[in-house]
Design brief:
This protein has one domain: Up-down Bundle (Growth Hormone, Chain: A), CATH 1.20.1250.20. It contains 18 helices and two strands. The chain has a two-stranded antiparallel sheet with strand order 1-2. A hairpin with a 6-residue loop joins strand 1 and strand 2. The termini are far apart. This is Major facilitator superfamily (MFS) profile domain-containing protein. Its main location: membrane. It comes from Castanea mollissima.
Amino acid sequence: MATGLAITSEEGQYNAKMTLLVVLSCMVAATGGIIFGYDLGISGGVTSMEPFLKKFFPEVYTKMNEDTKTSNYCKFDSQLLTSFTSSLYIAGLVASFFASTVTRVFGRKPSILIGGTAFLAGSALGGAALNVYMIIFGRILLGIGVGFANQSVPLYLSEMAPPNYRGAINIGFELWVGIGVLLANLINFGTEKIKGGWGWRISLAMAAVPASILTLGALFLPETPNSLIQNSKDHEKAKLMLQRVRGTNDVQAELDDLIEASSISKTIKHPFKNIIHRKYRPQLVMAIAIPFFQQVTGINVITFYAPVLFRTIGLGESASLFSAVMTGVVGAVSTAISMFIVDKLGRRALFMIGGIQMFLSQIIIGGLMACSAWRSWWD
């Protein structure tokens, strides 16, 4: 099962090989990233397709084709359309609270399986939607899948990965997200050209392909040693699994650390009260501030609404979808590069590099949109 590449942790305590079992397990689990990225990219594309808008959001379609007085930025102003786009995130937020409990109590594998099943049901419902209620309910199911998959998959990858490759494999999840966005943009660009105006159904239903891989693959995924130790008193079973995934019998040092960490975590009472104590304040602040500011940068809005954004500045339907493809290519390539350098440069360096790039690019985007709006008003 081993590829023969042996590694040792920086502390010199753990020995491990990048085994075929780890590679295959991480590839299956990481399809959750493809689905998440696909759902991010696909909805922005279909909401820029006129046949889709005509069927489910006729008011927006009428504004786009008949209303010459309303600004392009206001033509997509629809509470119903907003419900379609935001329902995934609201459902994902609510589901994540339940997903954390399932992941902790029952293990990573069941949580991945629930996420894959929800993804599969949501993609099927979206592709077969006959009215706006069906399509929104499909988005809610996709959101449940996002909540469970994003809770369990990164954790699964971290626990399965050898220590020296943990950073690269974690970013590998983000790479799959980027690939999912790119695939969605490519499919949208192709299905928009289908005559008859039903190409959006293919776009929404194609999420079933990676969802099937994740759901079926989850049935055969091994549970992580951490989860076995956390939820079972059979440490021998955890040791055997650790030997399989590390490709060596010399796992006692890592096993002892995992058992000790699990034992300590079970003795802690009122963890949420403890985390607000002064000595834990730096960790609490960073754990909240980093993801919070990453989201409020607005970069996800640009990714999500890329085709709509390009349409508001005057590009046609096909041109806006092609521009979104270019955005997806840049995102996937950048993530791939970071995956190979993260363990050499460190996480902080990537934060700085990415933050500077986002700062400059969003200033440029804001300037271009302001010029476009001013020109539209002047005309």
